[in-house]
Amino acid sequence: MRMFDYILRRLISSLLVILIIAVTLFLIFYMFPSNPAQLSCGKPCSPEQLRRVSAFMGTDQPWYAQLGAYLLGIFAGRTFGTGASAVVCAAPCLGYSFRLNEPVTTLIAERFPVTASIAVGAAVLWIIIGVGTGVLAAVKRNTWVDRLLMALSAIGISSPSYLIGLLAIIVFAFELPVFPSGGYVPFSRNPAGWFSHLLLPWLVLALINAASYTRITRTQMIGEMEQDYIRTERSKGAPESVVVGRHALRNALLPVMTMFGLDLGSLLGGAVLTERVFSMQGLGMLLLDSVTNLDLQVLVGSTLFAAALVIVANLVVDICYSFLDPRVTVGR
Amino acid sequence: MPSQTQALMKASTEDETWKGEHPIIRVDNLSVSFHSSPVTHNISLRLFPGRLTALVGESGSGKSVTSMALPRLDPPTARVSGSAVYQSAISHEHATAQTTKTDQQPHISSDSSKSSGSNTTHSSDQSSDSIDLLSPNAPVRTIRGGLIGTVFQEPMAVFDPLPTIGHQIEEALEFHTPGRSLSRAEKKQKVLDQLREVGLPDPQRIWASRPHELSGGQLQRAMIAMAIINRPRVLIADEPTTALDVTTQKGILALLTRLAHRRQLAILLITHDMGVVWESADYVYVMQHGRIVEQGPTRQLFEHPQQAYTRELLAAVPRLTIPATTPVTTSATIPVTASTEHASAHAHVSRETMAEKTESEKTSALVEVSHVSFTYPCHGLFHRSSRGSGPALTDISFRIDAGKTLALVGESGAGKTTLAQILSAQLHPQSGSVLINGQNIEHLKGSALRQARSHIGYVFQNSASALVPTRTVGWSIAEPLTIHTNLNSSAIRDRVTALMKDVGLNPALASRYPSQLSGGQQQRVGIARALALHPRLLIADEPTSSLDVTAQKRVLDLFHRLQNEYSYACLFITHDLGIVQEIADDVAVILHGTIMEQGPVDSVLAHPHADYTRTLLDASPHIGVLPQPPHTSHSSHASADDERE
């Protein structure tokens, strides 16, 4: 019951946060820059045309009415214009790109599998690499193994992904042509192609992200290994593998998990640099294009989607946390 | 129990047997050093089956390092030399040895023994296998938990916080069960039986609980269960009761004694508290600066301590001395029930008498607490659901006069700290009033509140965490002065120097960091900081519970002296009645947020009316060799009630 209360409370607060983000985004992008109708109107744009475009897009309304229509659109969908020229934006309507003549939701749905493939694969790799090396560094603390791993992680943390990505393309796609230099093949069409196109981006993203996981895991493990319960485990006759793997690691992973959820959540919203370097048409590229083309509807919609992903990831982590660490929900 | 065995032990120490038993562990010339600086020197000791052996000394004497070396739980940086021989045949021999009193070849007394590390064969007159625990190829994982069980000091920290207690104990069972010979159900049954044996009445619930859901006493019992589940012959208990209340401590010590006898377990009890030794140990080794300075059977050592250090340790225990006329018993002549109603009626009477006594100096009442009740909000900012939804304090009333000390006694969770927080305006009671120096502190805000708080000094329980770790102790002592006064830096420095002298610290320590000081020194810094602004009220929340008895003794003496100099009123929170008698003028006994009884210390201790006060009295360690009547099994006098008035 207490757990149910906790999850319910977290759900409500998450929805509130998403609402606040939606309002903020709307205000920033719709109210302050130049008139979106003007942008859609085309080069020779008479005041009469502008008025009609404004009415069509709804930007002639006062800001609160626009905001209301936008928010309502998310739940109920909305229709731009009337009669034969009407454009329908179905239920989770995050806006309509008059540039691409597509609802933003459709655009996101097309691009999301690309980004998700990159993000999830990379995340699996980096959590394994990062936690593994972190534990190794902690167990071999102050030996050459530890120092080497720390040096490597310092390099990893300070390397920009576009640099590593371009180097990887030069080496593994041009010099030794083992991998394609870019592009994306859907899994449903060709699983092997999907894999070979993704492996390089996965490795690049994973190595860069793993570096910080090595560090945080090492710090957490060292802290846990100094706890009293470690001595208790040893006093029971536990083999060192059980002491480290079953007890210290499980406790050390709790804060790592929080970080992992947020990182994965924000990466799912668009791996901008990686997608750019490996020319993959994911959410990151959608976002990038919408910025360069001032396609504000897409910009707002995909930013809101990315923000929602981070919040959902955070929520999932917290709920997992309350199952893994029974102390969490108590007292809330 | 020491008296029964005394004669036997006296005779037996010479020939290294006890009640016909041979030692199960012989430690000879054990020395431990860190980074080539020795911490212990040539320790020799014997552990016997069925006997509780105490290793006593203050913190830093090397007692933990010594005992932890046996199951090799010492830190990896420690270098250990000497020998510690475990003789497994003792258990088989046990049955026959009892009747045939041994006349084995007498060994030389342990101190002069020249036996060195590897020379272990001389002692084995049985053909059994013996293990040198300290040899590099000793089977460490069999020894740990299999031959030697270990119990530690902080029951709240010794369990992995995530798995259930049952899971963690089953795990200990698995480590010593070859293959997968036990089914899940068998394992669980064994654990439940073991939990029952250590006196946990609801083993099913404990089995399914996680560490944070249990009390310190329950956890320590579960820890003992885990330590002995594989039937080790030896149990090392490192300060097993130091973190516990007196009432819980008594239960744990009784359990250890029972296990020693029932299971023929050799127990090594590490403690700094001679009261604990008296309660439970058969034989005592006293350790100072890494050496054993004195040893002997408990009663003999307590009656005739040879070394000045042993006498100092004995003198440091806060002794509860109850006047000879004590009718302190459960007897039908005093119609007391535990009911809150009744108890508060008594409390009321006591308050009346106190009020009468101080009628003439009514104006000097510095603290006046009337009918304070407090409940922690359930879903508020305070994450304290462990306290349950019941009120933390109910109808609390008392007064403290200037220059007097009121001791607040009760076990953990009774509401003592909550009350201290109300007194210092950190929490606000739902009803009732708190007057300090005639001023109601409840409705103060902003600068008026800060002003009022500057008249209240607060000494915290955990001396180490109450100081800012990244600042020097001089800075910590000066902080109240920099906040509340306009003194310039040289005046502040002078004041800090004076304060440090007052609390018995060398002013040169001002530039040190808290981690560079001992626990006793840290607590003195805490006291100096609390006194910096000449407070009218000093709140001391268990200021000595993290210190060992000798340091505690010195800090208590300090409180005495300082109160004469600064003449503050003091609320002294403790769970130790011995301390109450040492330091307080009046005492309030609190249980579940209700004051059960209050009044002048001597009269409350001599004529306790609440059952709970009697329980506390009963649980306090009494060193029986003092010329005082054992307070239990005394018949009460009919005049008990009259004497109170």
Would you give an account of this structure?
The complex is a heterodimer of chains A (about 325) and B (about 650). Chain A is mainly alpha-helical and about 325 residues long. Chain A folds into 2 domains: about 1-105, no CATH class; about 105-325, MetI-like (MetI-like fold), CATH 1.10.3720.10. Chain A has 13 helices and 4 strands. Chain A has helices at about 1-30, 35-40, 45-55, 65-75, 105-140, 145-160, 160-175, 190-225, 230-235, 240-270, 270-275, 285-290, 295-325; strands at about 80, 85-90, 95, 100-105. In chain A, the strands form 2 sheets. Chain A has a two-stranded antiparallel ribbon with strand order 1-2. In chain A, a hairpin with a 4-residue loop joins strand 3 and strand 4. The longest helix of chain A is centred in the middle third of the chain and has 36 residues, at about 105-140. Chain A is globular. The model of chain A has no long low-confidence stretch (mean pLDDT about 85). With about 650 residues, chain B is an alpha/beta fold. Chain B folds into 2 domains: about 1-315, 3-Layer(aba) Sandwich (Rossmann fold), CATH 3.40.50.300; about 340-645, Rossmann fold, CATH 3.40.50.300. Chain B is built from 23 helices and 21 strands. In chain B, the strands form 4 sheets. Chain B has a 6-stranded mixed beta sheet with strand order 7-8-9-4-10-11, with helices on both faces. In chain B, strands 17-18-19-14-20-21 form a 6-stranded mixed beta sheet, sandwiched between helices. In chain B, strands 1, 2, 3, 5 and 6 form a 5-stranded antiparallel beta sheet that branches. In chain B, strand 18 (about 535-540), helix 19 (about 550-565) and strand 19 form a beta-alpha-beta unit. The interface between A and B is medium-sized, with 23 and 33 residues.
